[in-house]
Amino acid sequence: MRIAVDLLGGDDAPAVVVDGALRAFGADPDLRLLLVGPAEVADELIAMLRPDDRDRVAVRPVREAVAMTGDPAALVRSDSTIRAAVAAVAEGAADAVVSAGSTGATVTAAVLGFGRWSGVRRPALVATLPALAGPVALLDVGGSLEARPATLARHAVLGAAYAAVVYGVSEPRIGLLSIGTEAGKGDRARRAADPVIADQPLPAGGRYVGFVEGYDVALGSRADVVVTDGFTGNVLLKGIEGAYAMAGGPPAGGGAPRAAALLGVAGAVVVCHGAARADDVASGIALAAHLHRRRAIAAVSTLLAELTGANRITDTEVTA
């Protein structure tokens, strides 16, 4: 597998990206890297490898990075590392993209470079949390900040398919994050999304369990997938990460979420936190490799396509 790594993505790039790429490279003998960034940075990484391993690394020289601020659409039109990394996958020179750079720019570059899946207006970032009862997929955690009912309903479909494909969950349970489990709880978007999700078919035999609360994300006993908007999901994710740190680490058997997969575009994209450390970057590369090995993006897309005709949720169908 060939993973395109954005060398200039992240607050502490390129140093932590180089370190993380080296860790991922050493942990997976089947891994090949396409380093996208300044040639001298790539050469520094390659020089640290054993001579026999250097043919597992290729370089695409790009000098411009996307800043963490600014208009993502305007930024990715420049000759930036994230745009070049996405282009490499689109051209067949790599199988997946990993970046710790601007999430907005990464999502925009992926949409422009790969195109969206049919029926997906807002791609979602999904992170997996090590809950007490088993892993919980949380989406969206920052792909889109809007909380429209149709978007939440589509996230439920994406999450069910992801849990089934990536983690082999049979008949995944889907919950909608709110401030209480009783009917009628939450803001207008969640009250409107609740009956839509309940009425729509879900892939892989998924079933909707209704509203869930924040503690259900950490417990994992009520839902395998928790759906929310990108703003709320990002805040919750970072809050849980902070709680793990205060408690001395996540539950036994599961690591803290260090990267998120982008669902809804026709290419494999993994986004790491902007403040990623080397082990975060290594985890993101490992996730990209896992997605590629399982042909996860194609499999999730296929599950969604099988629902075509029975599950057409659009932004005009639910307007609350």
From TrEMBL:
GO terms for cellular component: cytoplasm. Pfam families: FA_synthesis. One of its GO terms (biological process) is fatty acid biosynthetic process. Keywords: Acyltransferase, Cytoplasm, Lipid biosynthesis, Lipid metabolism, Phospholipid biosynthesis, Phospholipid metabolism, Transferase. Its EC number is 2.3.1.274. Pathway: Lipid metabolism; phospholipid metabolism. It is found in: Cytoplasm. It catalyses: a fatty acyl-[ACP] + phosphate = an acyl phosphate + holo-[ACP]. One of its GO terms (molecular function) is phosphate:acyl-[acyl carrier protein] acyltransferase activity. SUPFAM superfamilies: Isocitrate/Isopropylmalate dehydrogenase-like (SSF53659). Its main location: cytoplasm. The keyword Metal-binding does not apply. Belongs to the PlsX family. Homodimer. Probably interacts with PlsY. HAMAP family: PlsX. Catalyzes the reversible formation of acyl-phosphate (acyl-PO(4)) from acyl-[acyl-carrier-protein] (acyl-ACP). This enzyme utilizes acyl-ACP as fatty acyl donor, but not acyl-CoA. This is Phosphate acyltransferase. It comes from Plantactinospora soyae.
